[in-house]
Write a structure and sequence with these properties.
Layout lengths: L1 E5 L29 E12 L6 E12 L3 E5 L6 H9 L6 E6 L3 E4 L11 H11 L4 H14 L15 H14 L4 E5 L7 H17 L3 E5 L3 H7 L2 E5 L6 E6 L11 H21 L3
Parallel strand pairs: 4-8, 4-9, 6-7, 7-8
Antiparallel strand pairs: 1-10, 2-3, 2-5, 9-10
The structure holds adenosine-5'-triphosphate and magnesium ion.
Magnesium ion binds next to helix 1.
Amino acid sequence: MTIVNDEPGAPTPVPAPPVASDAPAPAPTSPASVPAAIRCRGLSKAFGTARNAVVALDRVDLDVRAGEFVCVVGASGCGKSTLLNLVAGLDAPTRGQVDVVGRTALMFQDSALFPWLTVADNVGLPLRLAGMPKGARQARVEELLASVHLAGQGERRPHELSGGMRQRVALARALAQEAEILLMDEPFGALDAMTRDLLHDELERLWVERSLTILFVTHNVREASRLGDRIALLTSRPGRVAATFDVPFARPRRIEAPEVSEMAGLVTARLRQEVARHGPR
Ligand SMILES: Nc1ncnc2c1ncn2[C@@H]1O[C@H](COP(=O)(O)OP(=O)(O)OP(=O)(O)O)[C@@H](O)[C@H]1O
Ligand SMILES: [Mg+2]
């Protein structure tokens, strides 16, 4: 495990694993041959104006290469959701640039399903909006539901499902958008550990099968160590990339595996330094 990028002037990282570079360079750890699906340069976002301005993000440099699974961790309020919203194009940066190559779909902690629609209609909504004929749509919805292990559940309504099932529906709806890039904002944060574990497996499978690029926000460093190819750690507000960690372990990983715990410990130690430097927000 390697810290591949560390913020200039930051305290020395916790001992043990090798620090590959303290260089203040942005995070392009991707081989030059693999294009960046997401490229953030000097990305800054302030809310409000003048004295009342809240600087949520400050000159964030982050690349996510096509097919990569990158997790973003950081203290509450450090700008993780703001970053995701900027990448999704839901908000505009105050300064800097974000380039996204490919279609994106966003998933939140809350499944954000329409309660009056059936499961099938929720999943099929992007297809209907895209003008897909009913027959083809139904077949595609069945296929998508099967891919998240919800075959035959299409006629149920969201309130009849468990939280984990609702997140599966939300995942199927995201996949229905034919997105190449999934932007996920703590999508499993409200689930119990066992359900989360199952959804980690499913997400990993779909990521491989569909060659997705995933930018996944979580404050759960264990989850980040379980899922990510890389972990980007943001400073407390304003958010900057304080360090990125390569997670080189073979997949599929178990969340309780010793190397995942070790990585989580390393990231947590760095996170603690950040909180100690800036205080809780
Ligand atoms: N629309 C907004 N208007 C004003 N301030 C905002 C807005 N959105 C976010 N902020 C502020 O920007 C900062 C970063 O918020 P953000 O939601 O990105 O944090 P976060 O890292 O996602 O936190 P959490 O882990 O709690 O979800 C916070 O101080 C928040 O109050
Ligand atoms: Mg958030």
